[in-house]
Amino acid sequence: MAPTELSFYDRISDALANPDGQLAIAAGAKTKYDNRARAMSEFPSMEMTRDRARSIRAHTLSQLDKFLAEFADNVEALGGHIFWAKDAQECNQYINEIAKAKEYSSLPKLNLCLLKKFLSINS
Question: Could you tell me the residue range of the domain that residue 119 belongs to?
Answer without folding.
Answer: 83-123
